[in-house]
């Protein structure tokens, strides 16, 4: 049952919040749809263009796919197994009276590291539930493996050994640098930084906001003398659609095969998100995260 | 950026010795006397550093440009410091202006460099005009780049495209026929102040560098400052926001310069704005969910352009109207162009899809520019065949 579109609150000067159009769009993106829409990969049917009427636009499905993959990457805790979205295959969305938006979708994923990407795609199916304009979408996702478990374990251990030998440059840094260059010897740092960021990226994603890790801006601590890698760092996240750059401090503890431990704190800038759950954006990931 | 020299040379020479230039830098060494020149010779003769002199150090009346591979950066810096040699790492916006000047001088019959205005910090705004018609004001195409300063692949693609146009005119039938009927105006750096700021202070700066009275925050988003549903949804009235629309439409002198030029010309048929990242090819509107009157035609052209782009390396672009393909945005250049009678108005969001984002590696510049060129040509051919 499609919900009534309610009048959005009057804008308060100087406090950006999800705009009226954005809210209307978010709801429009979440129409109740019977059945599945098949959409081929590549330049897909644009919203409002000839296609199945009332089908969820690719935008919402991609949003859900991203959230699902960030969550998967975090839960897998494997820097060699990091995945990113390749293409959305199909999906449907439904919204209830509380404006909770449930998305069921199928998509393909590929390896995060483009240098070792061999074109092999994993196939994923997910259910992602966005609470109305709130972060921390609920994710249930499964993906076929594009790599045997033994191989990914092996690669994780290789990365672990390289990380243990690595003397990370402490303090302010720019990885990649302005020209997109990552020194190959520092690649493990980048992969682990992205792994830790996955938790943050998942938590912060809503129907309308999503993030990318723009740059690693500081290495505060890189402890490898004990068994686990203890990594404390700052990243700059790029937020869509506000275009803001959000500095986040992340502290992770990683050992191959064990659940990732992550703590983080993101700076809330001038643009405080109205209606978000945690203003500060700090959280400690539970070691047995709920998968609801 | 420093890449400019790299691929400028690559285009000039059909064979290049080294494939990879990422991480390398260009040092400009100031040689003031004979003593310094002999010190520099030591550097020249050091095989192991693998230096590449862009300008020969034989005449020491001018500064010497040296391409230093990333592996040798530290050694070269230490050497220069220990020998007391003055140097600077060359600043990219000057590179782009010099490159534009060089293109115009090398192909005077086809190209002229036109100053259309200046930035807030008084940097010149230069456009390259490609025209085969003397004096007549033909239907024209506007290629806009670098309006958001951190999107470096945009400026890089623009300057590569300039070189491509001059080298392919007279050889590529499609391009030649386009230029027989229309003029092309190319603005590689629509936001020069922001661009310099990304090189010197903050690589992720997006906006202009105009001062906002009463606020500590600097700059407005030049792509929310156009007079198309100005201050509507999808922009912010907070000067500290990355999408601050500015105090009023065309408040940003960089925007006003383009508006005045295009309106004064009165015969533009196509406006293309290059951004990054996300791999999208979009058409109006951004400020409303309403379908533009020409949306069907624009969608069809955009799809063909995206297919042409993908044909080179398989890079896939999503196609659609701005509002629903990416997000609502008011005051954008492309919406303004469209609402002012420029039917063929498109936005490219170039590579990649988030892995490197704004920090796209240098080795992707040429592949990006090459594939984008195929998309641009598809659009320009359609405009040529559908002049109104």
Automatic annotation (TrEMBL), chain A:
<keyword id="KW-0677">Repeat</keyword>
<protein>
    <submittedName>
        <fullName>Retinoic acid receptor responder 1</fullName>
    </submittedName>
</protein>
<dbReference type="GO" id="GO:0008191">
    <property type="term" value="F:metalloendopeptidase inhibitor activity"/>
</dbReference>
<dbReference type="InterPro" id="IPR049897">
    <property type="entry name" value="CYSTATIN_LXN"/>
</dbReference>
<dbReference type="InterPro" id="IPR046350">
    <property type="entry name" value="Cystatin_sf"/>
</dbReference>
<dbReference type="InterPro" id="IPR009684">
    <property type="entry name" value="Latexin"/>
</dbReference>
<feature type="region of interest" description="Disordered">
    <location>
        <begin position="273"/>
        <end position="292"/>
    </location>
</feature>
<dbReference type="GO" id="GO:0005615">
    <property type="term" value="C:extracellular space"/>
</dbReference>
<comment type="similarity">
    <text>Belongs to the protease inhibitor I47 (latexin) family.</text>
</comment>
<feature type="domain" description="Cystatin LXN-type">
    <location>
        <begin position="171"/>
        <end position="274"/>
    </location>
</feature>
<feature type="domain" description="Cystatin LXN-type">
    <location>
        <begin position="45"/>
        <end position="151"/>
    </location>
</feature>
<keyword id="KW-0646">Protease inhibitor</keyword>
<keyword id="KW-0732">Signal</keyword>
<dbReference type="Pfam" id="PF06907">
    <property type="entry name" value="LXN"/>
</dbReference>
<feature type="signal peptide">
    <location>
        <begin position="1"/>
        <end position="38"/>
    </location>
</feature>
From TrEMBL, chain B:
<dbReference type="Pfam" id="PF02244">
    <property type="entry name" value="Propep_M14"/>
</dbReference>
<dbReference type="GO" id="GO:0005576">
    <property type="term" value="C:extracellular region"/>
</dbReference>
<keyword id="KW-0479">Metal-binding</keyword>
<keyword id="KW-0732">Signal</keyword>
<comment type="subunit">
    <text>Monomer. May form a complex with proelastase 2.</text>
</comment>
<dbReference type="InterPro" id="IPR036990">
    <property type="entry name" value="M14A-like_propep"/>
</dbReference>
<feature type="domain" description="Peptidase M14">
    <location>
        <begin position="87"/>
        <end position="383"/>
    </location>
</feature>
<dbReference type="InterPro" id="IPR034248">
    <property type="entry name" value="CPA_M14_CPD"/>
</dbReference>
<dbReference type="GO" id="GO:0006508">
    <property type="term" value="P:proteolysis"/>
</dbReference>
<keyword id="KW-0378">Hydrolase</keyword>
<dbReference type="Pfam" id="PF00246">
    <property type="entry name" value="Peptidase_M14"/>
</dbReference>
<keyword id="KW-0482">Metalloprotease</keyword>
<dbReference type="InterPro" id="IPR057246">
    <property type="entry name" value="CARBOXYPEPT_ZN_1"/>
</dbReference>
<dbReference type="InterPro" id="IPR000834">
    <property type="entry name" value="Peptidase_M14"/>
</dbReference>
<keyword id="KW-0645">Protease</keyword>
<dbReference type="GO" id="GO:0004181">
    <property type="term" value="F:metallocarboxypeptidase activity"/>
</dbReference>
<dbReference type="GO" id="GO:0008270">
    <property type="term" value="F:zinc ion binding"/>
</dbReference>
<keyword id="KW-1015">Disulfide bond</keyword>
<feature type="signal peptide">
    <location>
        <begin position="1"/>
        <end position="16"/>
    </location>
</feature>
<protein>
    <recommendedName>
        <fullName>Carboxypeptidase A1</fullName>
        <ecNumber>3.4.17.1</ecNumber>
    </recommendedName>
</protein>
<keyword id="KW-0121">Carboxypeptidase</keyword>
<comment type="similarity">
    <text>Belongs to the peptidase M14 family.</text>
</comment>
